[in-house]
From TrEMBL:
Keywords for the protein's UniProt record, in alphabetical order: Coiled coil
Coiled-coil stretches noted in the UniProt entry, renumbered to this chain: 16-57, 89-123
Source taxon at top rank: Eukaryota
UniProt-recorded name of the protein: Centrosomal protein of 290 kDa
Length: 163
């Protein structure tokens, strides 16, 4: 019983540590993604400012040649960049939402495990130590009884098999 309790306790501690580590890693990842999101928003603002200047040059009829030899206006290029950035931002936002949900789930699970461990007070661990000591004493006593039984069996010529 003691060994089972001790194994369960060690398992719970290990699980709690793993979940704490996972929460820490997810929190770091969320912060990184939020940082990337802020950077991308700033980039969008810069692109929008450039777009205004591109619109004015597109209105004046300026065109560019692509590497394939096609003529395009600056406005076409800015629209492509803008749609690319907005798709990237959408992906980042989805990833952030997903990580926040996972973080909440792990936090809830961690709180539940902490509450479960809170039920294991100091008396519980003292009782486990007492049980451990009692088991050790029982093993010693059993070994002494076994020696006595061997001596008695030899004395009376009875067969003895230790288990």
């Amino acid at each position: 019983m003691y060994n089972d309790l001790q194994k369960r306790y060690v398992k719970e501690i290990k699980t709690n540590q793993e979940q704490s580590e996972a929460i820490k890693n997810l929190t770091i990842k969320i912060h990184e993604l939020e940082h990337n999101l802020r950077e991308q928003r700033q980039r969008i603002e810069q692109l929008e400012c450039k777009r205004v200047s591109w619109k004015t040059s597109a209105v004046s009829g300026k065109r560019r040649r692509t590497p394939e030899g096609e003529l395009t206006s600056c406005r076409d290029i800015s629209e492509k960049k803008e749609s690319c950035c907005s798709k990237y931002l959408e992906l980042l936002l989805k990833e952030i939402k997903k990580l926040k949900k996972e973080n909440e789930k792990l936090s809830t699970e961690r709180r539940a495990l902490k509450n479960e461990l809170a039920g294991l007070d100091k008396d519980f661990f003292e009782e486990i130590e007492d049980l451990k000591l009692a088991v050790q004493e029982s093993v010693k006593l059993n070994n002494q009884y076994e020696k006595c039984l061997k001596q008695i069996s030899v004395m009376y010529g009875l067969p003895f098999s230790a288990h």
